[in-house]
Amino acid sequence: MTEAGFPLSRADAFQRLQSFLPTAGRAYARLRNKDQGKGRHVHVSRLSPAVRRRLITEAEIIETVLAHHDLASAEKFVSEVFWRSYWKGWLEQRPTLWPDYRAALEREKDRLDASADLRLRHEAAIDACTGIDCFDAWVEELNVTGYLHNWARMQFASIWIFTLGLPWELGAAFLFDRLIDADPASNTLSWRWVAGLHTVGKVYLADAGRIRSMTNGRFSPTGLAHTAIIPTDSLQTPQPAAVRPFARPNPSAPTLLLLTSEDLSPETSQEMCGLPVRAIACIDGCNTWDRMAMADGMERACKAWPEADCLGIVEPAHLLAKAHAAGCSQVTTAFLPVGPVADVLMPLQVEGPTRGVLFTEYMHDWDRRTWPHCRKGFFALREKIPALVRCGRD
Ligand SMILES: Cc1cc2nc3c(=O)[nH]c(=O)nc-3n(C[C@H](O)[C@H](O)[C@H](O)COP(=O)(O)OP(=O)(O)OC[C@H]3O[C@@H](n4cnc5c(N)ncnc54)[C@H](O)[C@@H]3O)c2cc1C
């Protein structure tokens, strides 16, 4: 658990889920949008740092919740968990959006250097000096805890784009660098959604009265934009494409199991369980939170495969050589979704065969089942929720 109380081990995630269970039904539907302020987010689960790293999976969360509530009572909570899968599946089928966003971000950073006006407005935002009470307080909460309530994130992004007139790409990067649950799909695509780029023409405009009411009068912002100018010169939405091809692990090949912050419960995967794992390694995390979660994942994996050599952190450039030295003919990791970890590791897919070590990935049934319904709007996935939850966990 972090100092601010966010679960970063599998045991803490299950404990948090257990204590949240009574709230996951109708109370969640009624109260989830209330932002109570730093340290008081009792109406939401605060599970995102754990599920983002798959210390606990979406399937496990939903199965546990539905053992206590029927789907009608827990519909809101369950569908929020599906939003995570939706964003992930949607991006996976439009992978070019990630490098396009990264390139646009670099262009916006260059614009900061070139335009004093833009730079000053950006500095005021990131230094919590805009004079907009809720916005400045959310920057401070984010800096201290690494977390913002979902509803606050929506207001924050809307004020950033429409009131402060700042590029959404800079806002998405600002949040991504600070969030304890930073996730390429949920973050980038939520910013696009607020900006009006996901559902064409539909923007999210923050409203002062609603902010007052949802924060129990803690904030009374003035000067918020009343109209939204959609950033039309921004990234075009590509058509959906097939999920990228990947090599599945050979069930009898000596294996180096690789843990990354994308999935830290390999021992729960059916596909992994049968593999002859000879060595276990992880790549270094991006921040202290990743490292805490990684330590927990490594400890469990090394217990689950006691015969394997626990190598600890390995530089990506040395992975294939380490696997070879450990007598392994394949490196196996969980499917790497679009994002920084895949950016670093994907070159090994090409390099592996030339070095006599295949780079292979196992995929959760959850992703295999949900992603085909993530090609259009969320509604198409929401319709399938009853059938998907009946299929059970993977
Ligand atoms: C601008 C913006 C940026 C965001 N960036 C991220 C991010 O980088 N990483 C991230 O994990 N989430 C992100 N979200 C989604 C959401 O805000 C968080 O997942 C949620 O606040 C986590 O808190 P919780 O676990 O208490 O949620 P709860 O309300 O308890 O929801 C339960 C679970 O459902 C999922 N979930 C809930 N709401 C959403 C949502 N809107 N989108 C996707 N999944 C959701 C999460 O896995 C969450 O743990 C972002 C939302 C916005 C509007």
In short:
50% of the residues lie in helices and 7% in strands. The mean pLDDT is 95. The chain is α/β, with parallel strands linked by helices.
Percent of residues in helices comes to 40-55%
CATH topology of the largest domain: DNA Cyclobutane Dipyrimidine Photolyase, subunit A, domain 3
Specify Rg, calculated over alpha carbons: 21 Å
Strand portion: 5-15%
Sequence of secondary-structure elements: HHHHHHHHHHHHEHEHEHEHHEHHH
Mean pLDDT: 95
Main beta-sheet strand count, sense and barrel state: 5 strands, parallel
Give me the CATH superfamily of the largest domain.
DNA Cyclobutane Dipyrimidine Photolyase, subunit A, domain 3
- Can you count the beta strands? 5
Number of H- or I-type helical stretches = 20
Highest-level CATH class of the largest domain:
Mainly Alpha
Number of domains: 3
Principal-axes shape call? globular
Structural class: alpha/beta
| Bound ligand species | flavin-adenine dinucleotide
Distance between the termini: 26 Å
Would you give an account of this structure?
The protein has 394 residues and is an alpha/beta fold. The longest helix has 22 residues, at 71-92. It has helices at residues 10-20, 26-31, 48-52, 58-66, 71-92, 97-114, 116-126, 133-145, 150-163, 168-178, 184-195, 208-214, 270-273, 288-304, 319-325, 340-345, 347-354, 365-370, 378-382, 385-390, and strands spanning 255-259, 277-282, 309-313, 330-334, 358-362. Helix 6 (97-114) crosses helix 7, helix 9 (150-163) packs across helix 11 and helix 10 (168-178) runs antiparallel to helix 11 (184-195). Strands 3-2-1-4-5 form a five-stranded parallel sheet. Strand 2, helix 14 and strand 3 form a beta-alpha-beta unit. The model has no long low-confidence stretch (mean pLDDT 95). The protein contains 20 helices and five strands. Bound molecules: flavin-adenine dinucleotide.
